């Protein structure tokens, strides 16, 4: 797995953004996360070594793209065409783009996009039912070859059965919220999402518990280093990997 951040900084637009980890980390260095800047690693996927070979070489792994911003942020409109060109040039890599701005997907879309690039997965974030019902109808109507959904931070139980029933969703990920101000993630919500995925035979991944994890009537405070391993130990992921 690799991470490529062509730009940094973002604007909060929905409840899931309240305790954004980028804002939290930037604050430690006195940095304003709302200021969007192009990064020095903008062209990282196409950088070459002395033998004129791409430095970034991956076999069957993903390149998680724009993890400290949003790929479809309006402040990045001028840079996105060049980023798409880099993605096109690296057809041997698979780029995963996670977004809360699926409504802006078509802005600056490449002329040769057609029904979508084979090497791109678009992951739509839906942290609650309201955002799922706003974003997913838009998401499913777009020309995208590979679609996944992520409920992270998951803020409540979310019913996405009618969206899974379309057969267009290739996977669902759930996870709790990290950080000192983390909101509760209830294991009952995770199990419900898993059951929905099993019902429609869609791969499901319980990624992380979050810092405040409720199971039954008990609330667990879980260290950041243990949140992914504790989720894995739950053994509720379905056909993932």
Q: Can you describe what's shown?
A:
It comes from Enterocloster hominis (ex Hitch et al. 2024). The chain is of the alpha/beta class and 241 residues long. The chain has 2 domains: 108 residues; 116 residues. The chain has a 7-stranded parallel beta sheet. A 3-stranded mixed beta sheet has the order 9-11-12. The chain has a two-stranded antiparallel sheet with strand order 2-3. The model has no long low-confidence stretch (mean pLDDT 97).
Count of strand segments:
12
The domain tally reads 2
What strand line-up does the widest sheet have?
1-4-5-6-7-8-10
The succession of helices and strands, N to C, reads EEHEEHEEHEHEEHEEEH
The structural class is alpha/beta
Low-confidence stretches: none
Task: Estimate what percentage of residues fall within beta strands.
Answer: 15-25%
Q: What composes the largest sheet?
A: 7 strands, parallel
User: Cα distance, first to last residue?
Assistant: 13 Å
Shape: globular
Organism: Enterocloster hominis
Protein name: DUF5131 family protein
InterPro entries: DUF5131
